[in-house]
Every structure is written in C-alpha cells, then in structure tokens.
Write a structure and sequence with these properties.
By secondary structure, this protein is of the alpha+beta class. The protein is built from 14 helices and 11 strands. It folds into 4 domains: 2-125; 136-207, EF-hand (Recoverin, domain 1, Orthogonal Bundle), CATH 1.10.238; 215-303, SHC Adaptor Protein, CATH 3.30.505; 307-381, Zinc/RING finger domain, C3HC4 (zinc finger) (Herpes Virus-1, 2-Layer Sandwich). The chain has helices at 5-24, 26-33, 37-56, 67-91, 97-121, 136-146, 154-164, 172-179, 189-199, 205-214, 224-232, 273-282, 299-305, 338-346; strands spanning 2-3, 60-61, 151-153, 186-188, 239-244, 252-257, 263-268, 288-289, 327-330, 335-336, 365-368. The strands form 4 sheets. A 4-stranded mixed sheet has the order 7-6-5-8, covered by helices on one side. The protein has a 3-stranded antiparallel sheet with strand order 10-9-11. Strands 1-2 form a two-stranded antiparallel ribbon. InterPro entries: Adaptor_Cbl, Adaptor_Cbl_EF_hand-like, Adaptor_Cbl_SH2-like, Cbl_PTB, EF-hand-dom_pair, SH2_dom_sf, Znf_RING, Znf_RING/FYVE/PHD.
Length: 381
C-alpha cells in the first residue's frame, strides 16, 4: 500500500495551478513591473523547478521504516508551501512596482531553497535520513538534538539552538529570518547545514553571522541580476555588495564596481567570506558597501579565525608541495593549502562542487587549520 501520494499530488497540483495562473498573466504583470519584469521571470523559473522536483519524488509504502519521518515531513512541508503559494498569488495583485520587485526576489529564494531542500532530502526522488553536513560539528549537533528527524519546528529548533549558542538571544529575529530558508514554520536539516556552511566554525558562528547580515553590503535575497541592478546606480569604483549564492550551494558571491566602472561578480572560495571582504578592502576593491562610505573590513573577526602559518606537524600541501597545508576540506577532512583549495573549486562549473584530490569526496566547504594552543609548560617550536 502506497501512502503519502495524495499529499504530494495535492501540493503539486496547487503549485501547477499557481504557476499556470501567473504565467497566463505574465505579460500584463511585466508591463506593470517595467524594467523589473525579469524578476518575475526568475521567480517563475524557480517555481517551475519546484514543480518538476515534486514530480520526481517517489511515495513510500507504509511498510517501509522511513515512512513515519516521510509522512511527517511531507505534511509540514505541504502546509507551509500552501500558505506560501497563497501569499505569492495574492502578491501578484499588488500594484506597487518597487514592493513587487522585493516580493519577487523573496519568493525566488523561497522556491529555490525549497527545491534544493527536496533534492537534499530526496536524492533521486527517494527519501533518506543519511545526509552529510558540510561541517562535522553541525552534523553532530543535529544528531544529538534531533536524531534522525528531517526537521524541527521553528520554536523547538530555537530552544535547542539557544542552549548551545547563548549569544543568539541578542539577535533572535535576525537569526530566524536568515535560517528559515524554506519555511517560517520549520527548520530542516538542509537549512541548518546551509546556515553553518555559510557562517563558519562553531566558536564564531553567531559573531560572523550577525556582523555579515547586518552589514550594509549584504544583499538579502540577492540574485545575479539584482546584484547588477543594485550597483548600476553606484558610479564609484570600489562599491560592492555580497549575497548568498543561488548558483552554488553553501557559497557566497561578491559583486563590485571595478576601476573601469565595470560591474564584476565572483563566487567566494575562502575559509570565510570575511577573509575575502578583508582582502578586497586591503586591495582597494571593496571599499563602499552599496556606494556608501561605511565599509567594515572585518579585520577583528579575521584575527580570531586566522590559521597557523604552519600546521603543528609542519605538513606541506600534498597537492602542490610548496605551501603549508592550512585548509581543511569539509566534510572529508583532508587538507591542502589555501591557494590549491581555491584552484580546485574555481576550475569547476558553478553548479558542480569540486572534489577532494585525495578521496574524491564532494567538497561542501572548508575550515582553516588552527594550531591548538600549547601547554603553558611547553615552549613553542
């Protein structure tokens, strides 16, 4: 007996209905949007991808061990997505162009991340609870607090998160607004994994997160297109924005105005985006967030996460043999130098993650290798 199929058909039917309805009046809506009509196209593209991904999910039989978490997830996802679709449909009736642009960007991100969540939880259309997190500490934390569950309600997640990360109480609303990539009702393994990949190590997670998303250069719900539009009005070289990439999961993108007034964009391959922003500031590339003279170079935070110039074993990079092996590829744990890490990822298509040159495991993120402090009675070599 196959169960859950009706839930999937119900929600996919709703997605298809809204998609066809908005597509049917696309041209009329784009007239009201003027130059922002491209954002409607982007939102509809993501909604179509969501519809296709839902089509690929295979219902589970009641006898299968994974049926219970499957049923629970599909139910909470269905209810959340139904509300989201109602809001999206209602938003299409608004007449204010500026508001509708931001509205469309918000839902472009919602649809994108829900599609990625479904692919994360249902690889090849089949549900599994054995996802591998980018950062080992995040995987350990989730297993300790939620076991094999695929999600937790937002309130329950925050209660458990606060126990470990007390500092989050100072930025609760900002935290929930950021980590709720796919729903405001629940936080999935996907959302927590993505959040920790983006904001880094456990010790500095909340500090880095709160500084980045409060920075004037942070483009919330930014896309490749909206980054260009945001910087178009900035005639000053050194103007920049940064955003969570929708082209490569778990990475950041930085856009800036060059000395020749070109708008350039690049994915960020580094221990953390704060190092890229700091380096760009030193080089005169990232000086004015959205054209404003108020840049944060993040030098204080970088100082807290700086790796040792040499690992404790004085190990050289196995790939180039020249530099210190100061970068740990996650989640496999093999190491290389910072330059080789960037080269491995930069040689790949944006939609394809690089692979570890040692074990061929997918690289989801990286961490600097920090030499542990020596005992007080042991002299430094």
């Amino acid at each position: 007996m196959v169960l859950g199929d009706s839930d999937l058909k119900q929600i996919n039917g709703r997605v298809s209905k809204i998609y066809k309805k908005v597509v049917g009046k696309r041209e009329l809506l784009k007239k009201n949007l003027d130059s922002s009509g491209k954002y409607l196209d982007e939102a509809l593209d993501k909604l179509c991808m969501l519809k296709n991904t839902l089509d690929e999910i295979r219902p589970f039989s009641k006898s299968e061990d994974t049926y219970k978490p499957y049923k629970q997830y599909v139910k909470v996802m269905r209810n959340s997505l139904s509300s989201m679709l109602e809001e999206f449909d209602s938003g299409m009736k608004l007449k204010t162009t500026g508001f509708l642009k931001e509205f469309l960007l918000k839902y472009t991100h919602f649809f994108h991340h829900l599609t990625m969540e479904l692919k994360y939880l249902f690889p090849n259309g089949q549900m599994t609870s054995s996802q591998t997190f980018g950062r080992p500490y995040a995987q350990e934390w989730w297993c300790k607090n939620f076991g094999s569950e695929l999600y937790a309600t937002t309130d329950h997640f925050y209660e458990r998160f606060y126990v470990t990360f007390l500092e989050v109480c100072n930025c609760k609303s900002l935290f929930l607004d950021t980590i709720c990539f796919t729903s405001t009702d629940y936080i999935s393994k996907y959302s927590f994994d993505l959040f920790t990949r983006l904001f880094g190590d456990k010790e500095n997670l909340i500090k880095v997160f709160s500084r980045l998303v409060s920075d004037p250069g942070y483009l919330k719900h930014g896309t490749f297109t909206s980054s260009f539009d945001t910087l178009t009005s900035c005639k000053k070289p050194g103007s920049y924005i940064f955003r969570i990439s929708t082209r490569r999961l778990g990475f950041w993108s930085i856009a800036y105005v060059s000395s020749s007034l070109e708008i350039l964009q690049a994915l960020c391959y580094d221990w953390s985006i704060i190092f890229s922003l700091n380096y760009g500031h030193q080089q005169g590339l990232y000086l004015y967030p959205r054209g404003k003279n108020c840049a944060d170079d993040f030098s204080d935070l970088c100082g807290k996460i700086v790796p040792s110039s040499q690992t404790s074993s004085e190990e050289k990079c196995l790939r180039c043999g020249a530099n210190s092996s100061n970068t740990r590829m996650e989640p496999c744990g093999h190491s290389c130098c910072r330059a080789c890490y960037k080269e491995i990822l930069d040689n790949k298509m944006p939609s394809i993650s690089g692979k570890c040159f040692v074990c061929q495991a997918e690289i989801l993120c990286c961490s600097p290798i920090i030499e542990p402090p020596l005992p007080s009675n042991e002299p430094h070599r």
